[in-house]
Amino acid sequence: MESLIINQLQQQLEALKKFEHLNAPSKFSYFGYLGEFFLGAIILGLLFLSNGMANITIAGIPHFVEWILLVISVVLISHAVYLIFRYHSDKRVRKILEKILSDASKQSESSKH
Fold first, then answer.
1. Complete DSSP assignment for 49-105
2. Whose CA is closest to 23, among 90, 93, 96, 97?
3. DSSP for residue 62
4. pLDDT, tens digit, 9 for 90 and up, residues 64-111
5. Which of 44, 52, 93, 103 would you call most buried, defined as having the most Cβ atoms within 10 angstroms of its Cβ?
6. CA distance 47 to 12
């Protein structure tokens, strides 16, 4: 394998490790992602189940609060889904990259001898 490709693969592997380190400071971070998802889902569910805050109207503020809660819940859900998918896909990609790089280093060592 060319050294340029090996260098690019190593850079990609380091980028994955850096992202993992920044977003997963502990082994319980996955549960945090799930908690964030469920919190957003609960807020969204309560908004839909309450049929809005139509009973409380003070100069249109409740509708504004509904929109803020809707945006917050959608952001929480989308952020959690992104991190969960990224968590699983990065684990797989990291294993693949490490395997490719180890095979490439074995090939280069065997070709030197």
1. HTT-STT--STTHHHHHHHHHHHHHHHHHHHHHHHHHHHHHHHHHHHHHHHHHHHHH
2. 90
3. H
4. 788 888 899 999 999 999 988 888 887 888 888 888 888 877 777 777
5. 44
6. 42
